[in-house]
Amino acid sequence: MNYLCCYFPLLPLEIFNSTTTQPKPTCNKSDKTEQIAFAVEYSHKNRRLILQCNETAKSYGVQEDMTINTAQSLVEALQIKQRNQIAEKKTLAQMAIWANQFSPYVSCKENINQNGYALLLEISSCLKLFKGIQAFITLFNQQRQQLPYYNHTALGYTPAAAYLLAISQYHGGQSNNAPPNNAHPTKNQDTVKQHASKQYKTNTLQPHLNNVAVRYLDCEQDIIDRLQGMGITNLKKLFALPKAELGKRFGKKFVQYLQRIRGELADPQDIFQIPPVFDHEIHFIEEIEYIEGLIFPIKRLLNELGNYLKLKQLAVREIKLRIFFRNSAPITMPIGFSESCFSGSNGGHIQFTQKAIHLIRLHFATLSLPEATIAVGLYVNHFAPLQQTNQDLFSHHLLTSISKAELFDQLSARLGQGALKKISTSEEHRPELAWRYDNTNSEQTPSEKARPLWLLNQPKPLKSQQGIPYYSGELSLVQGPERIESGWWDKQIIARDYFVAHHPNGNLYWVYRNLQEGLWYLHGIFA
Amino acid sequence: MDSSALQQLLKRSDIWRASETDQHTPQVNNLDSGYPILNSLLPGHGWPSQGLTEILYHQQGVGEISLLIPALKKLSQQDRWIAWIDPPFIPYAPALVDNGVNLSQILIIHTQNKRDSLWAAETLLASNTASAALYWPGKVNNKIIRRLQLAASKGNCWGLLFRSSNAALETSPAPLRIQLKAMRNGLVFQILKRPGGWPTKAHFIAINRKHIYSSAQFTTLASINSINQHNGKNNAISQQNPLPYNPAQQILQY
């Protein structure tokens, strides 16, 4: 019992409506017929054929491999989409990332019977971590139920066997009694649980394999036809035949395949590598018109990102959210975190999703959709190393709530990046350049001169009479002058005499006389 | 009113009795304002660590920042934001550094509209990550102030509302209200409202601004007294004060 095969037979269909698990406020849940008849098409010899269709379409009599014309004559309102193999493979990769939480050795199988996909998980090496096969299966099934894609799993002693069992069990029962492709019985019904304990203890897979029909073998159709022609319908009969004779008739490759099924020959797998960047999209079958409706699929994307980060032990500083429309250009929203935001602990995952959703909601508060959305994507190109943050044990106000950086994020998400500024000093004599909006903490050297707490954005020209400046009252100069002449090396040349001036009402102002023109200006207030 | 009804009324937590003023002052170590006379008048002998404080003045620059600078200096040692929301001018970094304020805790927020500024102020006050929030809200009503007060006490944050002196005529849910007036070499303050105490008379605080060596050291005490005398019982500033010195009404006020 080394391998677990997770078979996704309906992926081409399901990638289009993976979001339909979302409860829609407009349609009645009980009203199943309300669902749109939907099918995925493919081309075969210049003919457009139905690849897969949903339950509603089936209830009208639409079948697989039916031509589009026939199907459309059966259901007028049939929605048909082109098969999107790239998206299917992307989805499988997402599933592989998901499966990586159970096993480090996951391999992908594509194009089973032209349209199915499967994942093979090597599990014997991780059973100790999950405390035995039973606990593992329970956890796996729990997680599996939450997948938006129909899947069927089976355990096997070898990868080939697990794979064969999963496919044959899905497609028609073990003894050819059940009709093949009988609509999914109950969602994610599994045979794993029933057989797990028994099989694992006895370590035999023979009884289960024996009943598998030969047509599910992963070999040329020609061989299967010939086997069936000879009356060899299941594996029991096939295994009973001497290997040498089989080799003579069907070739060495076929015999090796059988050996791999039985575990007599090594069967190395291509181990799935987690991609270096995160790039997931969800395409909607129905356009989403209101912005709140996007939160649900985004939550799913964030969960996937959380899984990804947990596996790679990384954190993120910025995620990019992109919303796609039919006609308008997509909207890209960078969502920044001012500190690497992801903790590797168990709760970190959920916390991360909540934090990100909170920020996204703040972004959405100022966003209006130009039209209905057709897809949403989440991208992360840059990762930061995971850091365990140590929280202060004694300052309780920090423990109970968000951090400084999180607050910064929330504010800038709503108010815009430019609204939040930090200030710092800079080594400069010109007063307007001696400070700047800055995020870096430069060294803060005291100026040792009289400097006002308020600086005016622009120096304000003052009236003057006989060399005395007026600002709604006569100003008396109490300190100065402090001559500042600087900036001859760039365009902002200044030559000023600064004074501290008293206003009759008691206010203290910082004024200067421009040495070139002799005019007075108000530049600051000693508030 | 029979005595039991009176007793019931007196048990209410929002009723305080003038006779218990000083005994009931919470003996918490509040934030030292840096000015002994101000400390002696503030409940808990210092600025509150949370809740709203209204600073009222006629004109920008009466010394409102200088008054707060010693407190801000101390608060900036904490790893929490000191936020300035919609300040009327640029808080000048060199002067703040001169006064010992740690700039890394300073956060300046400029908002586009009233809605955003109120949202930012409330979020900040309630966030638990800011030690002080200095807010120039423009015109606000009591409903908003009450919301901000709730946020400030929830978030353990000292919220400072800078308002025009005209607001002294109105009541406000802020627990501490101080009116300022500019004076040569300092400022005159008058506490219009404080928890567990009467409004105070006008008092002068000398402000030593860094690196200003004013030659004319006025004796300002005389001028203060003249203000207080000139206006009889109530002084120049409290003339506009809606709070009369009537204990019976005072109880109702709180």
Could you explain the architecture of this structure?
The complex is a heterodimer of chains A (527) and B (254). Chain A contains 16 helices and 22 strands. Chain A is an alpha+beta fold. A six-stranded antiparallel β-sheet of chain A has the order 18-17-22-21-20-19, with no helix packed on it. In chain A, strands 5-6-1-7 form a four-stranded antiparallel β-sheet, with helices on both faces. In chain A, strands 8-12-10-11 form a four-stranded antiparallel β-sheet. In chain A, α11 packs across α12, α13 packs antiparallel against α14 and α14 packs parallel to α16. The N and C termini of chain A lie far apart (78 Å). About 10% of the residues of chain A have low confidence. Chain B has 254 residues and is α/β, with parallel strands linked by helices. In chain B, β5, α6 and β6 form a beta-alpha-beta unit. The radius of gyration of chain B is 19 Å and the shape is globular. The two termini of chain B are 20 Å apart. At the A-B interface, α16, β14, β15, β16 and β17 of A face α3, β3, α4, β4 and α5 of B.
Concise overview:
The complex is a heterodimer of chains A (527) and B (254). With 527 residues, chain A is of the alpha+beta class.
Low-confidence stretches of chain B: 215-223, 230-254
* Low-pLDDT sequence parts of chain A: 19-33, 174-203, 395-400
Q: Order of strands across the widest beta sheet of chain B?
A: 4-2-5-6-1-7-8-9
Total strands of chain A? 22
Helix count, DSSP H or I runs of 4 or more residues of chain B: 8
Biggest sheet features of chain A? 6 strands, antiparallel
Order of helices and strands of chain B: HHEHEEHEHEHEEEEHH
Instruction: Assess the beta-strand content of chain A as a share of residues.
Output: 25-35%
What structural class is derived from the secondary structure elements of chain B? alpha/beta
Q: Approximately how much beta-strand content do the residues of chain B carry?
A: 15-25%
Helix content of chain A: 25-40%
Largest sheet of chain B: 8 strands, mixed
Largest interface: A-B, 57 and 59 residues
The rounded Rg of chain B comes to 19 Å
Shape call of chain B? globular
Distance between the termini of chain A: 78 Å
The span between the termini of chain B is 20 Å
**What assembly state would you assign to the polypeptide chains in this entry?**
heterodimer
The averaged pLDDT of chain B comes out at: 78
Residues in helix, % of chain B? 25-40%
Q: What would you call the shape of chain A? A: elongated
